[in-house]
Specification:
The chain has one domain. Helix content is 21%, strand content 33%. Strand 5 and strand 6 form a beta hairpin. A six-stranded antiparallel β-sheet has the order 2-3-1-4-5-6, sandwiched between helices. The chain has helices at 44-53, 92-100, 115-121, and strands at residues 2-8, 22-29, 32-40, 64-69, 72-77, 81-85.
């Protein structure tokens, strides 16, 4: 089984870490570069650890990246990983954490969080 992930390139202090991910697509929106990546289920814990080690320190600004597969959503902040559902009604903990660390609530949508939404967002077929 494979997770899809959304990584924001600007969240990384070392973008070289992206070589460890299978990049499917990229999309630039304003100054942000979004990447759609793949992470195999048996590698997801190591991928999350590498990602957290290479994210901008939280004291310099709170960022997040995330992975999804079926109904599971894994949100990766610099210092915590929260596993929840792709159902927005179950995002309370993830949103509370982000807003407590300065992320505006309108930036805590975790969309896309399905393969179809991701393919549409990145203009893939």
């Amino acid at each position: 089984m494979v997770y899809f992930g959304i990584i924001i390139k600007q969240s990384l202090k070392n973008p070289g870490i992206l070589e460890d991910f299978s990049i499917v697509a990229q999309k630039q929106i304003g100054s942000l570069n979004f990447l759609l990546v793949l992470a195999y289920e048996d590698e997801i814990e190591n991928q999350i650890k590498k990602l957290q080690e290479n994210m901008v320190p939280i004291k310099e600004g709170c960022w997040y990246n995330y992975f999804f597969m079926n109904e599971t959503l894994i949100v990766v902040y610099q210092d915590v990983t929260i596993i929840t559902s792709t159902n927005p009604e179950e995002w309370e903990e993830v949103i509370r954490y982000g807003t407590r660390h300065g992320i505006p609530i309108n930036q805590l949508g975790f969309n896309p969080c399905t393969k179809d939404e991701a393919f549409e967002f990145f203009d893939l077929e």
